[in-house]
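Database export, one record per block. Field names are fixed; values are copied verbatim from the stored entry.
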Amino acid sequence: MKKKLLIIALCSIATHLFAYDFETNGIFYNIKSSKDLTAEVTNSSEVSYEGDIVIPDEVSFNGKTLKVVAIGIKSFLNSEKLTSVTFGKNVESIEDQAFCNCINLKDINIPHNVKTLGSNSFYGCNALTRITIPKSLTKIDYSAFADCANLSEIQFEDGLKIIGENMFEGCNSLTQIVIPNSVESIENNAFRFCEKLEKLIIEDGDTELCIGGFQPWSGTNVTDLYLGRNIGHLPGFYMQTFWVMSTPTQYTIGEKVTEMSWLACKNVETIVLKSIVPPACNSFSDSQYAKIKLYIPVGTKEAYMKAEPWKNFWNLTEGTPTGITHTIVDNDKIESIYSTNGCKVEKYVRGVNIVKMKSGKVYKIRK
């Protein structure tokens, strides 16, 4: 709470503290480098930005042409009538509090050449409903999109490597997040207090996903988790301190996951394992062994019945809890068919059939 009050206070500082070097077409600039001929957008004590703003690629001043490479610190701070911004192709950084508390900013498209998002850069932009995070970003400071109350859709481009600290904290309209396999780390409290977040998908990947010291999803209500990668921790932190997610009722664990010592199962009802090799995992309580429904790939029951802790589950079933009744991807091929008791059959039998494809996918098909 203290941190949030401090951010609000910083974002409320009067704009008369700002100075600028020159103005062109209603936009104020500072010269960033006289040698490189670059400029950055800045603020003015005289005018507040409003409406639809277009940032040019270049701007002229005193006979020189300067590239507009940055949106400077607090450039659009508290511009409550600002509705959209179009960035020029040379913008590489959006600095601290650049759009803080622009409460009517509805349309923002971060270009692919932007490498840096400053702290609180879009804090409190309540009119934003969707955002694409480009893969070009190499530095994302804390709370970049925090408290964007109506932000309901986030797309992370494949190639993005880092999700910053408190980046989407308090974005209460988010219901689903998909983390691409290019992401290498998720920092402290990245999605904290996103109260409507229910579904989390971490895509399949060969590299470990490292997480910061305070688990990114505290204060959420994730019930459905798909995990396609092994989980690790950033330097200086311990695994047990950050992956404590007590809300999921279903875990689906991808075939590339080999270790699950982080697993917390307070409310879980169903675990779906995709790997034909039983992953390492911590033990469960006696009541969990009795109650949790465990689904494993077809043809792997013998292996799982020899492995701790999976052999202790009472409800261990080959197949998946839900499946496609008749549709199969055209370019995939059937590898084998099993009846519900696990016996391999030559063709479909009456009732439910478990179909394993050459791609590794498994379907339930009712005949």
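Remark 1: The first helix runs from residue 2 to 11.
Remark 2: The first strand starts at residue 22 and ends at 24.
End of record.
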